[in-house]
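## retry 2 of 3
previous attempt timed out at serialization; input unchanged, resubmitting
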Amino acid sequence: METCDIESIEFWRRSPEAVDHIESCRFSFPLDGKALLSVERKEGGKNRDLSEKEKEEILRFLLSLNMEEDLADFRAYEYEGDYDDYSLSFFLLVVFRDKTYFAVRGCSPRREKHFREILDYFGDWIRR
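## retry succeeded, writing output
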């Protein structure tokens, strides 16, 4: 997997202050332009370009998850990322250019491998 294989990454989580509020970030990787980060929080949203170093960091993190094996039991369909489903703590969606997507639902920190790493990593992007 390379960043040129990824079209976008979308992540949302329940706010630590209020479970009914959603915080999210979206990474866009257009082939003919700069990669972009979009963040939505209670305080408002922001957009900014991503550096090459940041793009590489994101790819390294995704590769470290070993998604196909470690997260197979928590794989989800795109439509399962429903904000009204309070059993979800977070939802991660990686959309590829030449294949379908890979989605993960975060429900159980005790059962799910990488639950805390995913929540912390993308939460840090939301706070930046």
